[in-house]
Amino acid sequence: MVSSSSSSRSSPSSNPSVLIPPTMRRTMEEVWNDISLTTPHHERLLIPSDHQSYHHHHPASSPSFKGMILQDFLAGPLNRPRTISPHAVEELPLLPPPLSPTLPRTALSLNSGLEFEYLRPHADSHSNSSSNGQNTCFIPSAISGAIDGPPSPTALFSFCSKNRLPENSAVGADRYRRRMINNRESAARSRARKQAYTNELELEVSRLKEENAKLKKHYEELRSAMVAQQLKSNTLQRSFTARF
Amino acid sequence: MSRDPLILGHVVGDVLDPFARSVSLGVTYKNRLVINGSEFKPSAVVDKPLVQVGGDDLRIFYTLVMVDPDAPNPSDPTLREYLHWLVTDIPATTNASFVNCDVGDTGREIVCYECPRPASGIHRVVLVLLRQIGRETVFTPEMRHNFSTRRFAMEHYLVPVAATYYNCQREAGTGGRRFIRDDRC
Fold first, then answer.
1. Do A203 and B38 touch (CB under 8 A)?
2. At A11, phi and psi to the nearest 5?
3. How many Cβ atoms sit within 10 Å of the Cβ of residue A91?
4. Name one GO molecular function term (chain A) (predicted).
5. What ipTM goes with this model?
6. Is B37 in Cβ contact with A193 (below 8 Å)?
7. What is the pTM of this model?
8. Which residues contact B56 (CB under 8 A, 6 or more apart)?
9. Helix (H) or strand (E) holding B159
């Protein structure tokens, strides 16, 4: 049963009737297949009905981890393949009762709640699966990796907008777009500023070079005039200031 | 694409129309000359600068206008332009001499100098020298904000002859977006 499965973590059980936490070697699909074959009804509810078909469409050959690619992750919680720890399965009934997939909106909100619960435990949770007595989930490190960093606007967006009412998502999209436009304008201004300053400096440099050349030339002329003057005045000369 | 810094920095578009430089203008804050597009902190521009006005004919008088076209925020310049300083009846001088725009010296300061203190964003502060047609032809504007140099020049028959600008942002570093308005993120 469930309790016995936790002890047999390292060796994938050949008994399909037992829920086993996924290991590094097993793909998500295998796990899901096991679950789907044997899962009792209340566990089934946690998985949206379209999930399985989704899963079959995406072969493990695509760049993915645990049978999931980043785009699918970002697509939203409904499409998210979920691995459920044996312990988590027990605790799930304690949460607000999961509704059937026929009410997607409320299921969505529940899922998002679950989602954020699941996201807190870290990537190490899937490595020491057997020992947990907590409500942990085995999150592929791809997911946890994506969450650990600052969520990109699109990721945050698919989180926020899809879990709320349609009006909120429209406003959110609007705000996001406006922010993007503002950012683009700021970036353009910044580039213009930089270009203007660079040009000014270049003009200044050429101006100074020109002035420098002119002054040097003037200096040379003066100098040669002075030298000529010196040569002339080496001999005694009658000066006009003499009284006589 | 012109290489004139005034055009690249959009001073010519936002504040002035294209004009021909005919008089030299030098603005110095605490021994540092203003170069187009250079950065000044508010602490560096607290006091009014020393302004050098060139020009050949001593009978011609000039008006100096200092405006901030990016008030209150360059992304949303609703108060464009904010008038910081307005000095009129500055006599033309030969290039080498100083013109100290203190009241009573040369030039009449009809809007006293207000230090630029940008709250957010990186603001351009533009100084424009305009040629007057005569003396005492310029009158005090009512408000500092929503000033328009173009309109002002048209009303008082002024012609721009020189301009320069610098950038100013908050004292404590990044003048990036700090506040979240209601309608934008």
1. no
2. -100, 120
3. 12
4. DNA binding
5. 0.82
6. yes
7. 0.55
8. B92, B94
9. strand B159-168
